[in-house]
Amino acid sequence: MSTIFSKIVAGDIPAYKVAESNDFLAFLDISPLAKGHVLVIPKKETDYIFDIEDDEYMALWVFAKIVAQGIKKVIPCVKVGVAVVGLEVAHAHIHLVPINKISDLNFAGPKLSLGEDELHQIAETIRESIISITAQNQ
C-alpha cells in the first residue's frame, strides 16, 4: 500500500524538502509543532521503524543527525527534539522539532498554520544550512 510519504518520494505530492539522499528524505511537516519541524523518512516504505534492517536503520539516524544540525544552526531553539510515534502515517518517520521546553513536543497540542511562502523560506534556509554543514565535514 502506498502511503502519502511514498507519494512524496515518488514526486506525486509536493513537499518542502530540506535534504535528500538515495535512501532518505527530509521535509517540513505541514502541520508543525514549531517552525522548522521536519520529518525524516526512509524512501523504502516500511511501516514500523524497528522493522528497518540494521544498516538502513543506523544510516537513517545519521541522516537525521545531519538534518538536526542544519535545523539547530538556523532555527532559534535550545535543542532539536526527536520523536518517533508512527501512528499517524504507516511509513516510518522521525520528527525533528526545534524545542525550548519539553512541552514543545506535545503532539496533542495546537499545530502551527504557516503559509506557503513561509514554509518555502524555512525549507530553503534549512536546506542551505545542511549543504553548508555537509561541505564543512568533507
Protein model, in words:
This protein has 138 residues and is of the alpha+beta class. The protein has a single domain, classed as 2-Layer Sandwich (HIT family, subunit A), CATH 3.30.428. Helices cover 36% and strands 18% of the residues. The protein has helices at 4-10, 54-74, 116-136, and strands at residues 17-20, 24-28, 38-42, 79-83, 94-99. A five-stranded antiparallel sheet has the order 1-2-3-5-4. β1 and β2 (24-28) form a beta hairpin. α2 packs across α3 (116-136).
Which structural class is indicated by helix and strand composition?
Answer: alpha+beta
Inertia-based shape: globular
Q: How would you write the strand order of the largest sheet?
A: 1-2-3-5-4
> Based on the structure given, which CATH architecture is correct?
2-Layer Sandwich
Mean pLDDT: 96
CATH superfamily: HIT-like
Assembly classification = single chain
Number of helices: 3
Overall number of structural domains:
1
Fraction of helical residues = 25-40%
Q: CATH class, anyone?
A: Alpha Beta
Largest sheet: 5 strands, antiparallel
Low-confidence stretches: none
* CATH fold name: HIT family, subunit A
Strand proportion: 15-25%
Distance between the termini: 38 Å
**CA gyration radius, whole angstroms:** 14 Å
